[in-house]
Design a protein that fits this description.
- The chain has 73 residues and is α+β, with helices and mostly antiparallel strands.
- It has one domain: Conserved Hypothetical Protein Mth637, Chain: A (2-Layer Sandwich).
- The protein has one helix and five strands, in the order βββαββ.
- The longest helix is centred in the middle third of the chain and has 14 residues.
- The chain starts with a strand and ends with a strand.
- The model has no long low-confidence stretch (mean pLDDT 95).
- Belongs to the UPF0235 family.
Length: 73
């Protein structure tokens, strides 16, 4: 399953919202340096979906605000 995410790094508080089109908007406190924001998004997504982090993989958008994650079975 693929998850499409728009990330806002450096936010004051962390939150996740799901839009009507199925995409997620995720705000994380970490800054986008040294992959810190990507790891924070991964943790937030795993907690929200209640799956282990090891089942989630970043497919596209390592340096972009628009990311695609894959959830494996």
């Amino acid at each position: 399953m693929k998850i499409f995410v728009r990330v806002t790094a450096g936010a004051r508080k962390e939150k996740i919202e799901k839009a009507e089109d199925g995409k997620y908007a995720i705000w994380v406190k970490e800054k986008p340096k040294e992959n810190e924001a990507n790891f924070a998004v991964l943790r937030a997504l795993a907690g929200h979906l209640r799956v282990p982090q090891s089942r989630i993989r970043l497919m596209q958008g390592r340096t972009s605000r628009e990311k695609v994650f894959e959830i494996s079975d």
